[in-house]
Specification:
single chain, 847 residues, mainly alpha, elongated
């Protein structure tokens, strides 16, 4: 009974085992078929290292065109420069055109000329006309009439030329001061073309050059009435509005001029210019409040404008005018209802504006005076003016920003700044190239061929994944075959070797995941180091600001500090600058090392290399065991099953060989690519050495020329700042003088009012004053002198003498008085204001 049950259980187990094996065989077969197809795809069309395929070139060209359309001309030029040298056919032609356009838009017209000339050499090129038009414009910019005439003659020879041809012809004629020819050419530009508005603007400008302001006004009026289609059209219209405002100003039409200026959008780059010019129109129209609002808005919209000193001084003067207007309204009694303006407030604002402007530009004037009058080397300031400071911590106090900004506005200095900017870009490119070469050399030095080329590395990674799964499949197939045969002798040894290697391989785990974790951990560490370096740079930056302040204080302190203390400060700061620059260099080296460390963190992984080697050994062991098992198939306990398993093993072995062959082909391709890269890097090292030597020569020459130009510009800008300082001082005096005049005027008005009131009082009380005024008493006669001997007395001694004598008159000597005098006293001869004698009738009493 027990034996029967055991036999039944054994049969059940054998049935289940057979069913499971059949299912496994079908599953393995399908998986092998999928892997075989994928293996064929992986081995087909292997990407060649260091070669740009047509599809890759097209994608990069599209990327460059996108950068160009977004205005990133530097990035576009960088990508296109590489494409021009590595592509051919239509893509190269397109890349050449966009490279020339990118350089043209950047302002590097000399470099752009080379690529447009190349395109203009092929009349069949689809960019032939565009290249010739650009050559005409470049000739205008570079003052090369011969080159422009040649390109123009080729344009005129084209049948069915585009609208750009008459436009280019008109621009060339305009540059040659042939205004009638220019107007004729611009009128030939078709309506609705992309050049229509530009041609109309140039036509109006030509009318201005011909002094025909009426026609110019009509043309600009027509221009601003158009609807823009592109951003370029919008800018042309805004330029037309600005030009129209100037024309109306010249034609003594201030209201129309103001309207034209105010049409410019506040978001436009021309808005500050419009505000500045409309402020002067308001001043001319004596609309001081509106002029002040325009100037205030200008300072807010463009605080770094080179017109700032002029606008500040103008604002101060307008404040004085406004104060005087307010005072005049108060005196005349014409102040509007609810108006609470105070002249004193406006005077205070004007005084503050003048004083603040004086304080703002005085340090710049003093710094430039020290440069002009002292022995300082102007070459030391070329880097600051051009923005090419190589170190954060400078060894000398920089000139104030206002002075630097004013210097950059000088035409000669602008050229120096442009040259220095180009040299700085070249220096940055050389430095970046050196760093890239160093990083590539570091990667090559590892000897790793797994992750160098991303596309090939992705294929190798997929091959490794299939091989890993294939090892498991082959192990399972071998174990099933071993259960059907008697394993002994060599077969047992081969199986033990295979199982031992399989066990070691399985113990390694997921090497790809472990590799990714190690890369992430290493890069996180490098990021932390980079963050610490950035923090140190910030500390150096703040220390630099303190050092600049200390240098400035040591130079400008009032009262001046002791000479020995000034020397100590300079020595200490110079030493600190040297240490800081050394730290900066070390930090830069650390950053280069961290960047290289990030690159190397994914290169030369020991786990992946060990897994690859162990996988090769395991494949050899599996192949040897499979050949031995194939010889035992005829002696199998289940011959059909063994033959089926052996067939699957053959497919798996061929698949493994195929994958191994593809992996070796990739390895050989990578080796060839790396050798090519090594040769290329060696050549680029030599090129960089030559570039650095050439750059050093140009920098020496540019620094010498720049120092000479700066020395002369220092004098010019110093004179401008001196004018600003003097005008601000005069403005302060004007404020005080205006206030004095107001006070004097108030005093005069008070005196005049007092005089008027006194006169009015005298007139009103005239009668009272005349009746109560006493007659002035006659002067007393002097004492009678003794008569001179021999002189007869004038009268008898016994009679009274002249009236006023003290002697008593004798009785009877007094004559009788008449009741009425025979003649009226003549009042007109009496002293003015003297009352008539009592009893005498007043004038006119007899009537």
């Amino acid at each position: 009974m027990r034996s029967t049950k055991l036999a039944a259980a054994l049969a059940l187990c054998l049935g289940a085992l057979g069913a499971g094996t059949a299912f496994a065989d079908g599953d393995v077969g399908g998986k092998l078929s999928s892997y075989e197809q994928e293996a064929r795809n992986l081995g087909t069309d292997l990407p060649k290292p260091n070669e740009v395929t047509s599809s890759q070139g097209q994608r990069r060209l599209v990327d460059a065109e996108v950068s160009f359309s977004l205005g990133d001309y530097d990035q576009a030029a960088l990508v296109l420069f590489d494409l021009v040298g590595k592509t051919s056919g239509p893509d190269k032609e397109t890349a050449t055109y966009y490279l020339g356009e990118s350089l043209f838009q950047k302002g590097d017209k000399g470099a752009a000329h080379q690529y447009f000339t190349e395109l203009a050499g092929n009349s069949m090129s689809k960019y032939y006309q565009q290249a010739l038009v650009r050559l005409v414009e470049i000739s205008i910019a570079m003052n090369d009439p011969t080159g422009g005439a040649d390109a123009l003659s080729k344009l005129q020879a084209i049948t069915g030329a585009s609208a750009a041809v008459p436009y280019a012809k008109g621009k060339f004629a305009f540059s040659q001061a042939k205004y009638d020819d220019a107007i004729t050419a611009f009128n030939e530009v078709p309506k609705g073309s992309e050049w229509e508005l530009q041609a109309l603007y140039y036509s109006a400008a030509a009318q201005v050059a011909k002094k025909d302001l009426a026609k110019a006004t009509d043309a600009f009026t027509d221009l601003i009435s158009r609807k823009p289609k592109t951003s370029s059209d919008r800018r042309v219209i805004e330029l037309g509005q600005l030009a129209l405002g100037r024309l109306f100003y010249e034609r003594e039409q201030p209201s129309k001029s103001i309207d034209s200026y105010l049409l410019i959008d506040r978001h436009s780059v021309l808005f500050p210019d419009a505000l500045y010019e409309v402020a002067w129109v308001y001043v001319k129209s004596k609309q001081y409040d509106k002029a002040l609002r325009a100037l205030e808005l200008l300072e807010q919209s463009d605080p770094l404008s080179n017109k700032t000193p002029t606008t500040r001084i103008l604002e101060g003067n307008l404040r004085i005018r406004k104060a005087q207007s307010i005072r005049l309204a108060q005196v005349s009694g014409t102040v509007a209802m609810g108006e609470a303006s105070d002249p004193a407030v406006e005077y205070d604002k004007a005084s503050k504006i003048f004083q603040d402007t004086h304080d703002l530009y005085l340090p710049s004037y003093q710094a430039l005076s020290a440069l002009v009058d002292g022995n300082l080397d102007a070459a030391a300031f070329v880097e600051q003016i051009a923005g090419r400071a190589s170190h954060v911590f400078t060894a000398s106090a920089p000139i104030p920003d206002a002075a630097a900004q004013a210097l950059r506005e000088q035409p000669d200095v602008q050229q120096i700044v442009g040259i220095e900017t180009d040299l700085g870009s070249i220096q940055s490119d050389i430095t970046e190239s050196e760093e890239i070469i160093g990083r590539l050399e570091g990667v090559l030095a590892t000897g790793d061929r797994t992750t160098v080329y991303p596309k090939l590395a992705s294929r190798r990674s997929r091959i490794a994944a299939i091989q890993d799964d294939l090892i498991t499949i082959r192990n399972n197939l071998a174990d099933q075959e071993l259960r059907l045969v008697d394993s002994s002798g060599d077969l047992a040894t081969l199986s033990a070797t295979r199982k031992n290697l399989a066990q070691q391989y399985a113990a390694m785990g997921d090497t790809e995941k472990a590799y990714a974790d190690r890369v992430t951990q290493a890069r996180d560490g490098f990021d932390k180091i980079d963050a610490d370096a950035t923090e140190i740079f910030g500390i150096i930056d703040s220390t630099q600001a303190m050092a600049v302040a200390m240098r400035k204080y040591a130079l400008d302190a009032q009262p001046p500090i002791a000479p020995e203390l000034k020397t100590t400060v300079k020595t200490t700061l110079d030493s600190a600058a040297t240490d800081a620059q050394a730290i900066e260099d070390e930090l830069a080296a650390i950053r280069r090392e961290t960047t290289l460390g990030k690159d190397l963190s994914g290169v030369g992984d020991e786990g992946i290399a060990k897994a690859r080697e162990l996988r090769k050994q395991l494949k050899v062991a599996q192949d040897a065991e499979h050949r031995a098992l194939a010889g035992f198939a005829s002696a199998s306990r289940d011959r059909g099953k063994s033959q089926s398993l052996s067939g699957l093993g053959d497919r798996a072995a061929r698949l493994a060989d195929n994958l191994d062959g593809t992996d070796q082909a990739i390895d050989r391709s990578i080796a060839q690519g790396l050798e090519e890269v090594k040769r290329l890097l060696a050549q680029e090292r030599q090129n960089l050495t030559a570039y650095k030597a050439e750059l050093a020569e140009y920098e020496t020459e540019a620094r010498a020329v720049g120092s000479t130009v700066l020395a002369g510009s220092f004098k010019d800008v110093k004179a401008k700042f001196y004018d600003v300082i003097v005008r601000t001082d005069v403005g302060v005096v004007d404020v005080a003088w205006a206030q004095k005049e107001d006070t004097d005027d108030d005093l005069k008005r008070l005196n005049l009012a007092r005089s008027r009131e006194l006169k009015q009082l005298k007139d009103e009380f005239k009668d009272v004053l005349e009746d109560t005024t006493k007659k002035p008493s006659a002067p007393k006669k002097a004492a009678i002198e003794a008569p001179v001997e021999g002189t007869p007395p004038a009268t008898s001694p016994d009679k009274a003498g002249k009236p006023g004598d003290d002697r008593i008159k004798p009785v009877g000597d007094t004559p009788k008085s008449n009741d009425k005098p025979a003649v009226k006293p003549d009042e007109s001869k009496a002293p003015k204001g003297t009352p008539a004698p009592k009893g005498t009738p007043k004038t006119g009493a007899s009537k």
